[in-house]
TrEMBL record:
Transmembrane segments: 6-32
Protein name listed in UniProt: histidine kinase
Record lineage: Bacteria, Pseudomonadati, Bacteroidota, Chitinophagia, Chitinophagales
Annotated GO CC locations: membrane
PANTHER family, per database record: NITRATE/NITRITE SENSOR PROTEIN NARX-RELATED, NITRATE_NITRITE SENSOR PROTEIN NARQ
Length: 252
């Protein structure tokens, strides 16, 4: 090769290498920034959810302690009312049943806001109470194999909210008669499995049309828990959810 040609060849080669190097640096820094952004968004989401749950717990406690005890006091007063007049007795009875209904509704709203049992007894008891409430008010039979508990309070709330939303959807949309819930733990993960035998749904259509907030909320909480979720369903195929969440309590 002529020395001039060699020089031109080397110059082109150097140029190409520099361009490849710059493209590499650009791609690596873009990936790095994308990762940083994703981590920042996740941290913000986690803070938002924490604030939301703190507010819910405060409202639930206010409802239970303040309004709940006022209603209980009114009920006690009414119980002590005595009359020989039949009309008045009927009105007192009616008032008693309205108060009972209000107490019942209040405890339901406060339970939905933040079940006290979740903090006091843990995840399995809270899920059991939730499923018992559903069985009392619907024709759905629920089999629950949930003996696992989660030590960290924030994580426990995420698990509970995920299961609560799945069960709310079953009650609201599924027409199911049977539901199976299992929460188990292996050496690395906590596994949550929920199936219903209802009408199922067209997953692609629902996700594409961005219908509802429940499924998005589930996704956000699974992301904060750094887990994975699998949803298998179809028209008349029931619904099967499965969540695989890293068990930070065993793996640090
Ligand atoms: N278990 C289920 N059975 C049948 N359809 C369901 C079930 N879970 C969710 N869906 C469908 O997915 C949609 C989105 O659910 P979601 O995001 O929780 O919103 P929302 O409950 O507010 O409608 C529901 O409107 C319903 O059509
Ligand atoms: Mg929903």
């Amino acid at each position: 090769m002529h020395p001039n040609e060699t020089r031109i060849f080397l110059a082109i080669l150097t140029g190409v290498l520099v361009i490849i190097f710059l493209i590499g640096v650009f791609i690596i820094s873009a990936i790095y920034h994308q990762k940083q952004n994703a981590q920042l968004k996740l941290a913000q989401l986690s803070v938002q959810l924490k604030a939301l749950e703190r507010e819910r717990a405060r409202i639930a406690a206010d409802l239970h302690d303040d309004l709940g005890s006022s209603l209980a006091a009114i009920r006690l007063q009414i119980k002590h009312l005595k009359t020989n007049n039949q009309n008045d007795a009927a009105i007192i009875d009616e008032a008693k049943s309205y108060i009972d209904e209000a107490i019942q509704k209040l405890s339901y709203v406060s339970f939905n806001m933040m079940p006290l049992i979740l903090q006091r007894n843990g995840l399995s008891d809270a899920i059991k109470e939730l499923t018992e409430m559903i069985e009392l008010t619907t024709a759905i039979k629920i089999k629950c194999d949930c003996t696992v508990d989660i030590g960290d309070n924030d994580r426990r709330i995420h698990f509970y909210r995920i299961i609560q939303e799945v069960l709310n959807n079953i009650v609201k949309h599924s027409k199911a008669t049977a539901v199976n819930i299992s929460v188990s733990r292996n050496e690395r993960y906590i596994l949550v499995d929920i199936t219903d035998n209802g009408i199922g749904f067209d997953k692609d259509r629902i996700i594409k049309n961005s219908i509802g907030r429940g499924l998005k909320n589930i996704k956000s909480r699974v992301e904060v828990l750094k887990g994975k979720s699998y949803l298998s369903t179809g028209i008349n195929k029931g619904v099967h959810y499965s969540f695989e969440i890293p068990d930070t309590e065993h793996n640090g």
